[in-house]
Amino acid sequence: VGSSFFDLAKRQRAWRQFTDQPVDDADIAIMLEAATKAPSSENLQPWQFVVVRDEARRRALGDHLRAAWAAGGRDYIEGRLPRAMVDDIDRGQRGGIAAAPVLIVVGGDTDRVPEKWLASSIFPAVQNLLLAAGALGLGSALTTLVAANRPALAELVGFPDHVRAMAMLPIGYPARPLGAPRRESFAVHAWRESYGQPW
Ligand SMILES: Cc1cc2nc3c(=O)[nH]c(=O)nc-3n(C[C@H](O)[C@H](O)[C@H](O)COP(=O)(O)O)c2cc1C
Fold first, then answer.
1. pLDDT digits over 130-175, tens only?
2. Which of 30, 48, 82, 91 has the most C-beta neighbours closer than 10 Å?
3. Distance CA 53, CA 86 (A)
4. Distance CA 110, CA 153 (A)
5. CA of 167 to the centre of ligand 1 (A)
């Protein structure tokens, strides 16, 4: 297992089960440093990261995620995705994700970037953070179901009115290894010169 960019990109997965092993603050700082090197519209850097370790607050975030899952998240994927995938996602939303020793709630500052362009200026930083976690041997996932009710999530981490809650990233040591991501070949998604011209 290497940690070159290409190795990391080829083994990024959504980890939803973690061990209790704590994550060093120094490692979190490395991830945040990488995240905040990302590009953003007009270099306005609208990202906000709340790093949650406190058990009571993680429990509240877990309850919030479970509620969003029960309120429609589960119904949305049930029957459309393969059984094993639904079960894995289910275990994650019902407890695995919130049991990570660190939960990073990601916000976007609408005083810096208008709502319409907020996501495209936030998620490059999130991807940097996730790849940095992988480089440090940590598991992580990008999750957004928890932000289905943005004001409620914002309140749990104290975001002011102008900061939108966008995502939550569990960070921890993987409970079990996951294989390579299963993806279609790039050639299914890439064209030469004009859409429909095969690679
Ligand atoms: C925008 C976005 C939102 C996602 N939201 C959730 C989520 O709310 N809960 C979850 O368990 N996984 C979430 N995921 C993870 C995806 O389900 C996962 O990446 C996909 O199933 C492929 O699995 P893999 O990355 O392990 O290969 C999200 C991924 C993306 C990119």
1. 999 999 999 999 999 999 999 999 999 999 999 999 999 999 999 9
2. 48
3. 27
4. 16
5. 11
User: Ligand 1 centre and the CA of 50: distance in Å?
Assistant: 20
**Ligand 1 atom closest to residue 178's alpha carbon, by position in its atom list:** 26
User: Which pLDDT belongs to residue 33?
Assistant: 98
- Residue 3: the pLDDT is 76
Work out the angle between the directed axes of helices 25-35 and 115-135 (0-180°, nearest 10).
130
DSSP 32-58: HHHHTTS--GGG---EEEEEE--HHHH
Closest ligand 1 atom to 146 CA: 8
Ligand 1 atom 6, closest CA? 143
For residue 183, what is the DSSP state? -
Find the length of the chain: 199
Summarised one tens digit per residue, pLDDT across range 54-84 is 999 999 999 999 999 999 999 999 999 999 9
- Degrees to nearest 5, angle at CA 155 with 149 and 159: 105
Measure the CA–CA gap between 159 and 59, rounded to whole angstroms. 18
